[in-house]
Hints:
With about 270 residues, the protein is mainly α. Helices cover about 70% and strands about 0% of the residues. The protein is built from 13 helices and no strands. The chain has helices spanning about 1-15, 20-35, 45-60, 65-70, 75-90, 105-110, 115-130, 140-155, 160-170, 175-185, 195-200, 210-250, 260-270. Helix 1 (about 1-15) crosses helix 3 (about 45-60), helix 3 runs antiparallel to helix 4 (about 65-70) and helix 6 packs across helix 7 (about 115-130). The radius of gyration is 33 Å and the shape is elongated. The relative contact order is 0.06. Keywords: Activator, Coiled coil, Metal-binding, Nucleus, Transcription, Transcription regulation, Zinc, Zinc-finger. It is found in: Nucleus. GO terms for molecular function: RNA polymerase III general transcription initiation factor activity; RNA polymerase III type 3 promoter sequence-specific DNA binding; TBP-class protein binding; zinc ion binding. Belongs to the TFIIB family.
Amino acid sequence: MLQNGKRQIQQMGSQLQLNQHHLDTAxxxxxxxxxxxxxxxxxxxHVIAACLYLVCCTEGTPHMLLDLSDLLQVDVYxxxxxxxxxxxxxxxxxxxxxxxxxxxxxxxxLEFGAKTHEVSMTAxxxxxxxxxxxxxxxxxxxxxxxxxxxxAARMHMFQRSVKDVIxxxxxxxxxxxxxxxxEFEDMPTSQLTIDEFMKVDLEQECDPPSFTAAQQExxxxxxxxxxxxKLDEVEGEISCYKDEIETELEKSRPKLxxxxxxxxxxxxxx
Length: 270
């Protein structure tokens, strides 16, 4: 079993582009699982996927449980259950930052009825796309989960308000959720129809929103500097024209003669 497990870990790990250290750690987890007889009642490939995901969590790699689900073509709920069991039994405090661990529970709380699973899977696909577009960088999972669930609910014709969602995902400010929605709106995925989103997987990746915002701010500052420079140049030209006009007007004024000249000089002295 160990040799077969090691081989499968190598195969899955290479597809996830994990390095050798990650694969060795996953194999060590797998050996612990086997020694504790935790494989009973679970498919070996599911256990191996859970071990690999334990490594992803502890090492902080940018993978979701959904990536392993896609790799094995198995329901993410099954892998989630196996992962949580192993993490508990092995006493591994894996950082719970993957939205896959939250969305099913949040979807159930939003009461989608028979379509809870469908809405959850759509929300997970949305989060997967958000992560690919770097929207998760520096973000708490609750904001991404909330945005994904709200969009998924609308896609499946459920009317859930921003207030409904933030009450479930425990976001303090509505502005956080609205910002995630605005960031997603700027992504190419938001331009797809529902059918296209379900069928098309865009290869294009976007820059992180923070990077894009910084670029826009730098561009605005550059434009402001260029505008200020042009204004200074225009004001300088206007000043020159003003001086020239006054000079020409002075020249064009008729010169007074006789008694009027004397009178003007006297007035000027006062």
